[in-house]
């Protein structure tokens, strides 16, 4: 399969290891990964902050770059970006009266996937040949859980990783408090939500917290770092890419 | 756009450890009960869809249903009054009470009368309004406003309630803080008022256009007292509460109690249709229905926002909202709190009030997941943020300029790559800091709560390019 990688602006700029790992995993499974260089951002932050038209302008660039017949699928290491592109964009474009963009987004949306749903649902793979002998807690990011409804796909992948011990995260489905500009506009509320997520992580005994959304991980990781906690955050792709018996 | 009003009130609430403890326990308990009650029904999702469809149909032909309701209520012996806004509604109710000569009214818990601040209007006219729902009574005695649609005193614990009762209820100076004892004290106080009341005031959960039937659901029986004992009953109801057919109640009365209190059925469901014509008469002989618009028809004009009017006030969205759980209802500063408040309050006021509320959400979607009539609250929140940015051009000029500039960068691959390179040294200097320097003010909120990691050695696209020339 020829898979176009949408790295997302966040992973491209701040967390490239998630996009690198996505490439590594898909290539290991025998797929061809391409990276259209014209890509930037999905427009989610603007769209969700009241700047719909600006968000649509950015998203139009995504559609232009990825609406290419030669790509069998488009993958992104971010549930919320995929939720924006697949679920929100057609709606927003429709509300804004841009029927052309709405239609194009709907058509393209059929081929846009978050990494774990691409692997489990589309490619039928659970064991990607990874080894990761550490204690891991999975945080189900809200948009992957409630908008994309990826369900247990990440857990299925994690259970197939050799050496990995999956621990229960208390109150796992409660939001971590990121929420885009919410994290800065209402930073105290966001911080209170984060504190509870960090407490849950501590209680779980996990060495690593993973998720399918880089933005949640940036927020949780920043909180762990501020608290001086030893727990590490890793994108699901990074765990799936890992083959070293003593990975770190 | 500014989230500051909510942020300021949230700041106070977040510092109150007692409040956060009360809320965590209370919302946690209701959440678990709801989940269990909903889990019992195999057809819950179909019920939600049916509920959504009923409300959508009711609102699509609202004018027709309301006129039919006026006809059926009138035919059954009631009188219907139309109120354009809160002021008109309050004036109508005051006039109706004054016509009876009564100086005291007993009230059923009602969100509509809270919305229009009826109690204050009655007080100005020298009429005492007694809230008869236990929690509403507590809030009234404390001189406060409800902090939760359904559990108005959720912010209070039993010791605080005991102290209030000792101070305000006659003969209760020695009261203990056992919940049964507290309830008994309230019961004795209220019973006297029920028995002497000549006017009852209620809201309505539903009104059936087909039959002229009004419906109130409640748990304590106080509503049944207020709607049956006084000679005069005045019901104030938002126009969106009308249901076309009696059979629609079959769906709504399943959805509401399970979503609200986690009960299969609420303890008291009162339905009344006009006045009885028996001899001697039974129940109120003067029946008034005040139909309240107060911004609702304007909300209907917004194709995305209008679904907020589907709300049946179950409060499930409050109980699952991680923001509400941490800030409580007073942070919303309005009659309607939580996620539904955040989409109702600004719309009902023509975007003049509660303009900070659409930002009081991380858009996690938990509210949409539990809403019994499937209001897509996150979608409406995002939509309202957009309306506020467009319609309130005065506010937040700096943010607007910043977001527009950033959009231009993100819409252009060349500008984006350049910005990536330029941002790196700045990001490196912010790593590990707790306060934002003057040149990085937008990062202040981020740095206040969490660290920024040092930027990576190279961007993904640099890695990709390096790999291509292997």
Keywords:
heterodimer, A: 248 residues, alpha/beta, 4-stranded parallel sheet, 8 strands, B: 470 residues, 6-stranded parallel sheet, 10% strand
Can you offer a commentary on this structure?
- The complex is a heterodimer of chains A (248) and B (470).
- Chain A is α/β, with parallel strands linked by helices and 248 residues long.
- Chain A folds into two domains: 2-122; 135-241.
- Chain A is built from 13 helices and eight strands.
- Chain A has helices spanning 9-13, 16-28, 44-48, 52-66, 79-95, 99-109, 115-122, 142-147, 153-159, 182-185, 187-204, 214-227, 236-241; strands at 2-5, 32-34, 73-76, 112-114, 135-138, 165-167, 208-211, 232-235.
- Chain A has a four-stranded parallel beta sheet with strand order 2-1-3-4, sandwiched between helices. In chain A, strands 6-5-7-8 form a four-stranded parallel beta sheet, sandwiched between helices.
- Chain A is globular, with a radius of gyration of 18 Å.
- Chain A starts with a strand and ends in a 7-residue tail after the last helix.
- Chain B has 470 residues and is of the alpha/beta class.
- Chain B has helices at residues 4-14, 17-39, 44-60, 62-75, 86-100, 111-115, 118-124, 134-141, 158-168, 179-196, 222-228, 248-260, 296-300, 316-320, 322-327, 338-348, 366-370, 377-391, 397-410, 413-430, 444-449, 460-468; strands spanning 79-83, 104-107, 128-131, 199-202, 206-208, 213-218, 232-238, 242-243, 268-273, 286-292.
- In chain B, helix 9 crosses helix 10.
- At the A-B interface, helix 1, helix 2, helix 3, helix 4 and helix 5 of A face helix 1, helix 15, helix 17, helix 18 and helix 19 of B.
